[in-house]
Write a structure and sequence with these properties.
By secondary structure, this protein is an all-alpha fold. The protein has helices at 2-10, 12-24, 33-75, 82-101, 109-128, 143-147. The protein is built from six helices and no strands. The N and C termini lie far apart (65 Å).
């Protein structure tokens, strides 16, 4: 066990391979439990981080759609928001795939939205040039709206 703990610090990939072998052979008493628990906890955190990281551009682009679309269309008559739609669609698709692979993440969605919103708001402010006070202080989109492939917010003037 002491050797496995040292291996964890020296060569993480070798440590993983050794643990796979130990588990397959049923030699659980030889496992570096402390580091294995740490890695499993990090895996869960990684999935949650990915969810938040998908929500940030999704919410930012929905905000831009709602608060800047009309302004840009007035300026450039041909503006259709195509790249925004692409980003919105991509993030919704990737969130759906993430939920298929990790269904229990759905229970963390509301907290993830709360965590993502301030960053999404900062992006929307930076990219639109609109004052922060233009936007809601908290996310005004429901979970259902965020995930609905057909939902786009009503445009503000």
């Amino acid at each position: 066990m002491k050797n496995l703990t040292l291996e964890y610090d020296r060569d993480f990939d070798a440590w993983i391979q050794q643990h796979i072998t130990l588990l397959k052979q049923g030699r659980v008493n030889e496992i570096d439990i402390e580091h294995l628990i740490e890695e499993l906890e990090d895996m869960g955190k990684s999935n949650r981080r990915e969810l938040v990281n998908r929500l940030i551009p999704l919410i930012a682009h929905l905000l831009k759609w709602e608060y800047q679309y009309n302004q840009l269309q007035d300026r450039w008559g041909s503006f259709t928001g195509g790249s925004w739609k692409g980003t919105i669609t991509e993030q919704r698709t990737k969130i759906t795939l993430l939920f298929k692979q990790n269904p229990s993440l759905k229970s963390k969605l509301q907290d993830a939205v709360l965590e993502a919103y301030p960053n999404a708001l900062d992006i929307a402010v930076d990219e639109t040039g609109l004052p922060k006070s233009t936007f809601p202080k908290s996310c005004s989109y429901t979970i259902e709206q965020l995930l609905d492939r057909k939902f786009y917010p009503t445009l503000k003037d």
